[in-house]
């Protein structure tokens, strides 16, 4: 508990958010690294997208 100093995420080259996981080499937001396509945002459609 507490010691969460190590950042596992860095800036993603594609979506620009700090969601690129170092260890997995995958962006958890847009899927960069795991898929050539943008990750689908099914959960975003509810917000009128
Ligand atoms: Zn991304």
Give the helix/strand layout.
Layout: E1 9-10, E2 20-21, E3 26-27
Antiparallel strand pairs: 1-2, 2-3
The protein binds zinc ion.
Entry keywords:
49 residues, mainly beta, N-terminal domain of TfIIb, three-stranded antiparallel sheet, 3 strands, elongated, binds zinc ion
Task: Give a concise summary.
This protein has strands at residues 9-10, 20-21, 26-27. With 49 residues, the chain is mostly beta strands.
Give an overview of the whole structure.
- By secondary structure, the chain is mostly beta strands.
- The chain has a single domain, classed as N-terminal domain of TfIIb.
- It is built from no helices and three strands.
- A three-stranded antiparallel beta sheet has the order 1-2-3, with no helix packed on it.
- The mean pLDDT is 77.
- The structure holds zinc ion (ZN).
- Zinc ion is lined by residues 12, 14-15, 19, 27, 29-30, 32.
- Rg over alpha carbons: 13 Å
- Cα(first) to Cα(last) distance is 37 Å
Corresponding CATH architecture: Single Sheet
Poorly predicted residue ranges: none
Strand residue percentage: 5-15%
Looking at the structure, the CATH topology is N-terminal domain of TfIIb
Estimate percent helicity: under 10%
Give the averaged pLDDT, no decimals: 77
Number of domain units: 1
Largest sheet: 3 strands, antiparallel
The CATH class designation is: Mainly Beta
